[in-house]
């Protein structure tokens, strides 16, 4: 295994990858063993993958799609093989039913950590009312919702409006329906700089207006280019708003280079290099704050969102009907906090989506 030059990285720690996959995807079959490659041993820079948030592509790929129950039962079986795998339940608003998801959660308590929506894969606008029952269930159970987010390119141009199922503005509209529910825009809006810029603007608007609980993962986003919609510039904008909890590390592995490798590197080596490049850029741009920012992006934010019942909720304009529920929730949290207190004292970049288009890499 290659060991990368990480002389200016002083932080080595825990990672939660908030966006990974298994299953069939446009002719490729991503096996459990490929996920195991990333989580079995520590990375060469000393980091350890603690958890990976995984959804089943076989419940999204329209060419050979498993139904809602079958696809999610399959990911549960896969997760049984390794406690580091935390599954998302893929929702199929066109052909499925929220009753399927409720049944899965009832029969498998504490197994799923959130819901996955892929408007492109299911060819349904993110604003469609068909999503509403699933979103209401997520709100009831306090579940994060990961939306594939982006706009596809066709012949060098952004796809026609009729096919913009997952653009950032539509994800924002969906999130406004359940303003306390964490909604994650995958890939910070896939489709290149134009779409990343839209996603950043949407994220900032939601923070300012407090009308949605939006997050973004940074898979397939350029790391550091001046005056561009990159990871570094997103961090700067979020830092100004004291909102660094809204950004998550995600890779989309094992899709693309994370399976096939690149520039003489294996898939895992390319994964490691991506992490090192992101951390190096944060070190170079944020000095004394770098380690804290790295820890938030790579671990703390996802841990709080997926594995802590608070789910990272911030001040949101509230619906009066929810006040009683919130009061009970905060009371419970206070009790947990008291117990806890007694018990303790203690490029430099991955390639942009526009470049991946030419390689026919379809992301999820």
Describe what is shown at a glance:
The protein has 364 residues and is of the alpha/beta class.
Description:
By secondary structure, this protein is of the alpha/beta class. The chain is 41% helix and 14% strand. It has 13 helices and 11 strands. The chain has helices at residues 32-39, 68-80, 98-107, 119-122, 132-141, 168-176, 193-209, 231-240, 257-260, 267-286, 290-307, 323-343, 353-358; strands spanning 14-25, 28-30, 48-56, 85-90, 114-117, 145-147, 153-154, 157-158, 182-185, 213-217, 247-248. It has a 9-stranded mixed sheet, with helices on both faces. It has a two-stranded antiparallel sheet with strand order 7-8. Helix 8 links the parallel strand 10 and strand 11 (247-248). The longest helix is centred in the C-terminal third of the chain and has 21 residues, at 323-343. The protein is globular and about 50 Å long. The protein starts with 13 loop residues before the first strand and ends in a 6-residue tail after the last helix. The model is unreliable at 1-6 and 311-359 (pLDDT under 50).
Features:
single chain; 364 residues; alpha/beta; nine-stranded mixed sheet; two-stranded antiparallel sheet; 13 helices; 11 strands
Topology of helices and strands:
Elements: E1 14-25, E2 28-30, H1 32-39, E3 48-56, H2 68-80, E4 85-90, H3 98-107, E5 114-117, H4 119-122, H5 132-141, E6 145-147, E7 153-154, E8 157-158, H6 168-176, E9 182-185, H7 193-209, E10 213-217, H8 231-240, E11 247-248, H9 257-260, H10 267-286, H11 290-307, H12 323-343, H13 353-358
Helix pairs in contact: 10-11
């Amino acid at each position: 295994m290659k060991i990368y030059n990480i002389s200016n990285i002083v932080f080595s720690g825990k990672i939660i990858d908030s966006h990974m996959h298994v299953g069939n995807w446009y002719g490729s079959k991503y096996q459990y063993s490929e996920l195991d490659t990333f989580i079995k041993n520590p990375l060469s820079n000393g980091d350890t993958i603690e958890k990976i948030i995984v959804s089943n592509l076989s419940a999204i790929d329209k060419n050979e799609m498993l139904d809602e129950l079958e696809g999610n039962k399959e990911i549960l079986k896969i997760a049984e093989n390794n406690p580091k795998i935390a599954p998302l339940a893929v929702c199929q608003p066109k052909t499925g039913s929220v009753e399927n998801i409720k049944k899965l959660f009832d029969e498998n308590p504490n197994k799923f950590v959130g819901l996955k929506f892929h408007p492109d894969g299911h060819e349904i606008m993110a604003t469609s009312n068909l999503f509403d029952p699933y979103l209401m269930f997520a709100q009831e159970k306090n579940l994060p919702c990961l939306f594939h987010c982006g706009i596809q390119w066709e012949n060098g141009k952004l796809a026609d409006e009729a096919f913009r199922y997952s653009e950032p503005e539509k994800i924002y509209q969906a999130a406004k329906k359940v303003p306390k529910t964490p909604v994650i825009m995958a890939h910070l809006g896939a489709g290149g700089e134009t779409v990343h810029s839209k996603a950043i603007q949407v994220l900032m608007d939601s923070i300012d207006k407090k009308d949605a609980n939006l997050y973004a993962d940074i898979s397939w986003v350029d790391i550091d280019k001046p005056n561009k919609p990159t990871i570094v510039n997103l961090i700067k904008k979020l830092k100004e708003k004291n909102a660094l909890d809204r950004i998550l590390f995600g890779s989309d592995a094992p899709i693309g280079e994370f399976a096939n490798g690149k520039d003489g590197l294996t898939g895992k080596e390319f994964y490691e290099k991506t992490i090192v490049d992101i951390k190096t850029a944060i070190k170079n741009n944020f000095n004394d704050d770098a380690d804290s920012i790295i820890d938030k992006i790579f671990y703390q934010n996802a841990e709080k969102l997926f594995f802590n019942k608070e789910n990272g909720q911030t001040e949101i304009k509230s619906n009066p009907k929810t006040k009683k529920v919130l009061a009970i929730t905060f009371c419970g949290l206070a009790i947990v906090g008291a117990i806890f207190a007694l018990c303790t004292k203690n490029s430099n970049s991955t390639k942009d989506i526009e470049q991946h288009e030419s390689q026919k890499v379809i992301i999820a």
